[in-house]
Design a protein that fits this description.
Elements lengths: L10 H14 L1 H35 L3 H46 L6 H10 L1 H26 L4 H18 L3 H7 L4 H12 L3 H32 L1 H39 L3 H5 L4
Length: 287
């Protein structure tokens, strides 16, 4: 195994490397984010029309005098199944984008540039495992936070909400690099979650610091966008609306790409800090 000198996991270093990687692959990652966003809206529209349309037609075609309640029950079941299907498909499309950008990030870290098609192809090859990791991880965090809220809400609702929020953030941090593990190491769904727990151990306050700093930067950008839009709107309200829409869409795409890039860089930085493994060793799975 190829190893290098272990380097500390530094908040500034992770953010700097993430931003550098993102800007070096800005067009590729933004196009991937755009494709994923458009696909999610297409999924919502098509599946929503098919599932809910069929459920409503089925309910409307029944005799309201003899089976009105049954029709309503059928419509309710169809709606629930439709929402579940839409949720799973949206998660799958979203994780396709995450996996694609993760692959592109690893290649960029090793000094190579991966094209849009190559990234999407690699992401598609692991989307099943990545989807399983994302859904199971989300369920674990949600259930844990829900249980904490249920218990502590007997003391006070605010106490329950705050405790649940803390559990949710902690769970997110602990499982932060589970998806990059699934894309790069491919150990399986459960093993990916366990691997993330191991890798983040000892660095969870650092990871929280990364997110807090990026949150401050994001707030500053949002404020700057608001100021720009306000100034333009004074000149022309119509132009201000167009600029606002374009800036918000662009900001959303950047955040989507940034989140995936950050997790991949975080995974790499944690492995270097804890195991002293170089990027060549990490990326050899793709060769």
């Amino acid at each position: 195994m190829s190893v290098t000198t272990a380097q500390p996991f530094r908040i500034g270093g992770v953010i700097s490397q993430t931003l550098s990687t993102l800007f070096n692959n800005l067009v590729t990652f933004l196009v991937i984010s755009l494709i994923v966003t458009v696909l999610m809206y297409v999924v919502i529209f098509i599946v929503g029309m098919v599932v809910f349309g069929a459920a409503m037609m089925g309910g409307a075609g029944m005799d309201p005098a003899g089976a009105g309640m049954m029709g309503l029950a059928s419509l309710g079941i169809g709606a629930i199944l439709g929402l579940i299907l839409i949720f799973v498909l949206i998660m799958a499309v979203n994780q396709l984008g995450v996996a694609a950008i993760t692959y592109g990030t690893v290649q960029s870290l090793r000094g190579r540039k991966a094209g849009i098609g190559e990234c999407l192809s690699r992401g598609l090859s692991v989307v099943g495992q990545v989807l399983g990791v994302a859904i199971l991880g989300s369920l674990i965090v949600a259930v844990g936070a829900g249980i904490v809220y249920f218990i502590l809400s007997f003391i006070h609702d605010i106490v329950g909400i705050l405790a649940a929020a803390i559990v949710g953030v902690a769970g997110f941090i602990v499982l932060w690099v589970a998806v990059p593990v699934a894309v790069i190491e491919r150990p399986g769904i459960i093993a990916s979650l366990q691997r993330s727990i191991t890798l983040t151990a000892g660095y969870r306050w650092h990871i929280l610091g990364v997110f807090l700093l990026l949150f401050v930067i994001a707030i500053a950008i949002v404020v700057a966008i608001g100021i720009v839009v306000a100034i333009i709107s004074v000149i022309s309200s119509g132009l201000g609306g167009i600029v606002s829409f374009l800036l918000n869409v662009g900001f959303s795409l950047v955040i989507t790409a940034l989140a995936a890039t950050l997790a991949a860089v975080g995974y790499y930085s944690l492995r270097v800090a804890k195991e002293g493994v170089d990027i060549g060793e990490i990326a050899k799975v793709f060769d």
